[in-house]
Each structure stands twice: as structure tokens, then as C-alpha cells.
Amino acid sequence: MVAAVPVVGICGPSAAGKSMLAAALCRGLQERRHRSLVLACDNYYRPDWDPHGRFGFDTVDAIDLPCLRQELAALRAGTCQSLRTYDMATRRAGRTPLSGEPPELVLLEGAYGPQPFLSDGTIALLVYVQTPLALRIVRRLRRDQQQRQRSARYVLRQTLLQTIPGEHHFIRPLRDRADLVVHDPQQSVADVTEQIVRMLGAR
Asked: Is 73 among the domain residues?
């Protein structure tokens, strides 16, 4: 029986640099001749989600966990043919096909989504990205206005009233469970890549 593909979790608060780190790790692993794939939890938001009274969209419950579990299991088994997508501007879900050889490693990246996989042994290595709040707010303003067609007023209100409370409740506890805490994703890529390569070599 072929062993399931290992999973590395990339977690941390909104706009901390998780996506940037995951993409850089993919490139670094490719240079080391390892096939990896980023599975972004943001693509598994529920299109029909009614925002939570306290957290809005900043809660694990906003993620379609059955779909995420199913597709992660298919990726780990090498049988996945396509992945879910989610448009943050229109809040509509879609699909994108996969091609090429199955990955040797899955990078599960997201603020909400990795939490349920910590207790079942799915995640072999958990990386937490820590970034100062002021920098994250600047990044959120730029990203959400440019890519998600949100107003600055909306972004700031959501950040203060929903995102920060959601982070305290769902995300900060992950820091204590992380194998690695990264404070500068760009400077840490080489070290994290090396640790992943060692993990793959030990399988």
C-alpha cells in the first residue's frame, strides 16, 4: 500500500504572508526536484455562508470542511483531477483542473481550514507565520481594495470588528502548536525548505 502524501500546514493570521511563503516553498522544493502543491483554504469558503454574528467570515465554520477533507484526501492518494476555487469578490465557487504528476507534498495554507486537521495526524509539520498587526492591516487594505473590490472603510471595519476577534479565538492557539514560527517569510524560505526536504527524505 502506497503511503499517503505528507501535508505541511502553513497557518497564521490574515495578511501575514502565508500565501507568499507557500509559493516560495513550492519554488524552492521544485529546485530540489520535489513536486509540491499549494492547497489554499480560502478556496473552500461556503458560497451560501451567512456571516457569523461575531466573526463574520473569520471562523472555521465558514469553510466547507467536507469538501476540503475530500479533496485533500484525493490529493494525498494521487487521485485528484481538479480543485475547488472561490472568487472573493463575487463569493462564487468553481473548479480548476489539475495536470501533470501527482504531488509528493501538499502545502495546506490558510488562516481557517488547517485547525481540524491538527488532531487527526494529517499535518506532519505546522508552520506559523507571525507578522505585526500594523503591517498586516496595510497589506489587507491594499489586497482587498485591489483584488476583492472592497472599500477601505469596509476593510478597516471588518478587520477591527471581526478579523481580530476571529484571530484571537481560532488562529493564535495554533502558534503554541506550531513546529516552526516564522517572523520573516522571505528570509525563512531556505530554512523551511531544508526542513521539509529532510522530512521527505526520512519517509
From this structure: yes
Please report whether residue 134 resides in a domain.
yes
pLDDT in tens, 144-184: 898 888 899 998 999 999 999 999 999 999 999 999 999 98
Q: Domain span at residue 48?
A: 7-201
Question: Would you say residue 1 has pLDDT above 80?
Answer: no
| Residue 130 CB burial class (10 angstroms; 0-12, 13-18, ≥19) | middle
| 64 closest CA partner among 111, 112, 98, 18 | 112
Looking at residue 198, the DSSP 8-state letter turns out to be H
- For the stretch 19-55, pLDDT in tens is 999 999 999 999 999 999 999 999 999 999 999 999 9
Within 13 Å of residue 122, how many CA atoms lie on the same side as its CB?
Answer: 20
| Cβ-proximal residues to 1 (8 Å cutoff; 6+ apart), any chain | none
Question: Please, which pLDDT band fits residue 2 given cuts at 50, 70 and 90?
Answer: low
Q: Does 1 reside within a domain?
A: no
- pTM of the model as a whole: 0.92
Can you give the CATH number for the domain in which 150 is found? 3.40.50.300
Phi-psi sector, 54: left (phi>0), alpha (psi -120 to 50), beta: alpha
**Looking at the domain assignment, is residue 109 inside a domain?**
yes
Contact 83, 38 (CB under 8 A): no
Mean pLDDT for the chain overall: 93
Total domains in the fold of the chain = 1
Strands 105-109, 82-87: pairing is unpaired
